[in-house]
Design goal:
The complex is a heterodimer of chains A (224) and B (101). Chain A is mainly alpha-helical and 224 residues long. Helices cover 66% and strands 0% of the residues of chain A. Chain B starts with 13 loop residues before the first strand and ends in a 19-residue tail after the last helix. The chains are: A mainly alpha (224), B alpha+beta (101).
Chain lengths: 224, 101
């Protein structure tokens, strides 16, 4: 499934849900208390966006907690393990740069008022995510030798998973930031993974879902 | 020997955070954040102190730029005002409907 201007709702919802879970794994482990809260805020924004779309698509709890990995349609990059802080923030930057074009497209193309409502709210939230992530990419890329090395390694690790986002608009969005961060953008034409649309994933999603879904599966229908 | 806050290499500089909750009000001090630069200070202040819609404007100021009065001077600075009740606006009625006074 390629990134298009008219994105599949389930792809967007699952990408937000899975990335939200990855960011929530940083809670109590971020480099500073301030960043811990920042990542938590972003995770909650993404969770809210995912919920809004899943509610349109069906029963949000069933969709989030009772589907297996093969039924998820998230962009592959979202499910990769967090790695270090550099990889987490570069991944957030890449995904946010994709969502920057996704949400406005949903506002104009979707016939469902609920989807348009989610998308209009998400545009502002995503603008902040993109800003926060890009400032960190620049700060670490153009920082110390150690932070530059880590950002370079993160870029090498994530580049083969950009396939779900790889439009010319996405490249045009990210390349100036990478240049400011003194990072060398790899070749646009380099080989890339991409989610197939029929449930092909990396080996990491199953573990993520096992943790995310364990409570709901152990106690079906449980209420607070 | 401990160094002053903001000069330690193992800690980011401290910034004081001021929020304005709506037009017409002044910025009020709400706390502080650590950040390496002004841009990060604004973002951290946003993330830590405006989660519940508390603000429409944020100021951040390097804590090292705050000049504070000496607590030991509090008698000579503040005590004299206590005996001057005529400075308080208690000798006229505030009309109903006037807020934020």
């Amino acid at each position: 499934m390629s990134a298009t201007s008219d994105p599949d709702l389930l792809t967007v919802a699952d990408s937000c849900l899975v990335l939200s879970h990855r960011l929530s794994e940083w809670m109590s482990n971020a480099p500073t208390m301030e960043e811990d809260i920042a990542l938590g805020n972003i995770a909650l924004d993404l969770l809210g966006q995912a919920r809004g779309l899943l509610q349109v698509l069906g029963d949000e709890d069933e969709l989030a907690y009772l589907r297996g990995p093969q039924e998820f349609r998230n962009a592959l990059m979202c499910e990769l393990p967090n790695g270090d802080f550099a990889l987490t923030l570069l991944r957030l930057f890449f995904v946010s740069a994709w969502l920057e074009s996704v949400w406005p497209a949903l506002v104009t193309s979707s016939s469902a008022p609920d989807v348009r409502g989610v998308a209009e709210k998400a545009i502002k939230e995503n603008a902040y995510h993109l800003r926060h992530a890009s400032t960190w990419v620049i700060r670490l890329g153009d920082g110390t030798d150690e932070s530059h090395r880590r950002m370079t390694e993160a870029l090498d690790a994530l580049w083969p998973y950009r396939g779900d986002f790889a439009t010319s608009g996405w490249y045009d969005r990210i390349e100036p930031v990478l240049a400011t961060a003194t990072l060398t953008t790899p070749d646009r034409d380099a080989w890339t993974q991409r989610s197939s649309g029929d449930g092909w994933h990396t080996e990491h999603l199953g573990y993520l879902l096992a943790e995310m879904q364990s409570l709901a599966r152990a106690h079906p229908g449980a209420k607070w | 020997m401990p160094q002053p806050e903001g000069e330690r290499r193992d800690s980011w500089p401290l910034w004081e955070v001021f929020l304005r909750s709506r037009n017409g009000l002044h910025h009020q001090h709400v706390g502080s954040v650590h950040a390496v630069d002004a841009e990060m200070a604004i973002e951290n202040a946003r993330d830590v102190y405006t989660r519940r819609g508390e603000a429409i404007s944020i100021w951040v100021v390097p804590s090292a730029s705050i000049i504070a009065s000496d607590p030991a001077d509090k008698d000579e600075l503040f005590e004299p005002a206590l005996s001057k009740v005529y400075r308080h606006p208690t000798f006229y009625e505030v009309p109903d409907g006037v807020s934020n006074i």
